[in-house]
Amino acid sequence: MSALCFAHLRWNFVYQRPQHVMTRLAETHDVFYFEEPEFSTLKPTLKQRREGNVVILTPCVPAGTSSEDLIASQRYILDEFLESRSFSEPPLLWYYTPMALPFTRHLQGLRVYDCMDELKAFKDAPAEIALLERELMSRCDVVFTGGRSLYHAKRRLNPNVFCLPSAVDADHFAPRGRSEPSGLNNLARPRMIFCGVIDERLDVQFVEALAGELSDWSLIFVGPTAKIDPAILPQAPNLHYTGLRRYDELPAYLEHCDVALLPFALNDATRFISPTKTLEYLAARKSVISTPIADVVDPYGRAGIVDIAANVQQAATLARQCIRQPRTQQWHRAVDRILGDASWDGLVANMRRRIDEISFEHLQVAG
Predict the structure, then answer these.
(1) Residues 215 and 307 in one domain
(2) Which among 239, 250, 255, 308 has a CA at the least distance from the CA of 276?
(3) Is the pTM of this model over 0.85?
């Protein structure tokens, strides 16, 4: 069976939930990953390339295309592609963005919405995204949410909503004596690290104040800047921004740092987030300090696995304690239990099982 995935994230951007899920789904399906359009051509066309077992589809349209023409162009490009493939049965339609609905309403096939974020709360979100998400939720056969907060926000919008928090490839991040990456440039220790997209979710005032409180530390931010002006990022001698790094480079960065940080602001954009990097930090056996994000407080903070800092001074105190007091064997055993229940392989197997159950129900109704 084929699967057609519609995503708001480019495949070669930060490697996260869509890439993990689609890579594993491609073990049993022919997976086609339909990205948001590029504005680079004189007439609508489609670029195709293969990344492992996944085929990446990038629609290309003329610059200045109106929103109405953009929908029509993407539908035209998609229909031409589907006609060229001549699928023997309708593909599985897998959504990461409601913005794909206007040019896919006409398609036949079981619909899945893997809701990994509250997209309408993000900076510069399209005005119509909330209405489109409600429609998508009503049309989908099964909905997955990337965290508990999202689940509670979405569970009444569809009869088949399942909470499947993001997972981790624990072996990928496990310490193994890697060489120090050149991006760290022998920076002073102790080192505190954040890995992820630097956007409106980052609490820049918190970061600036923390750099002042920990002036003898190096604070390292590994990831691209998106949707904010890089000029607003705090600057200090001990603050370092490496830019985007590949997924396979991240374990070495974590291995050569001392404490991991989740410095998220408490705002609409972070109300429902469930940071995947929490588990990646833990798999790297790093002490983690986080602002009080709901899906980090519960379960990780309540279990004593992640330290929750209500303010900058508390974060600095916790950081120094992490250096003075290494994590106990009890902490390591608790981390082992969490990692053992949170693999990407297990998550995708659970997704397949839910989809198969829904498909079987549909067959019974049709019969």
Answers:
(1) yes
(2) 250
(3) yes
Q: Which two tokens stand for residue 237?
A: 């001698």
Residue reference for tokens 């996944």: 54
Burial class (CB in 10 A: 0-12, 13-18, 19+), 330: exposed
Helix (H) or strand (E) holding 285: none
Q: Are residues 14 and 148 in the same domain?
A: yes
What CA–CA distances, in Å, run from 29 to 3, 61, 350? Answer: 6, 28, 15
Alpha helices in 26-105 (DSSP H): 67-85
Number of domains in the chain: 2
Give the Cβ contact number of residue 59 at 10 Å.
23
Dihedral sign from CA coordinates of 197, 199, 201, 202 = positive
Residue 208 neighbours by CB distance under 10 Å: 16
If we measure between CA atoms, which residue out of 147, 96, 118, 115 comes closest to residue 268? 118
Query: Quick one: which of 164, 189, 128 has its CA closest to 295?
Result: 164
- Domain of 62: which CATH number? 3.40.50.2000
DSSP string, 237-267: TTEEEEE---GGGHHHHHHT-SEEEE-B--S
> Which residues, including other chains, have CB under 8 Å from residue 227's CB and lie 6 or more apart?
122, 123, 124, 199, 200
CB 144 within 8 A of CB 112: yes
What are the pLDDT digits (tens) for 166-207? 999 999 999 999 999 999 988 999 999 999 999 999 999 999
Amino acid (one-letter) located at 55 = V
Question: What is the Cα–Cα distance from 185 to 330, expressed in whole angstroms?
Answer: 34
Domain co-membership, 33 together with 177: no
Between CA 217 and CA 224, with CA 222 as vertex, the angle to 5 degrees is 140
Strand-pairing partners, residue 5, are: 33, 94
Q: Is the pLDDT of residue 259 over 70?
A: yes
User: Are 162 and 204 within one domain?
Assistant: no
Q: Given this model, what pLDDT does residue 366 score?
A: 52
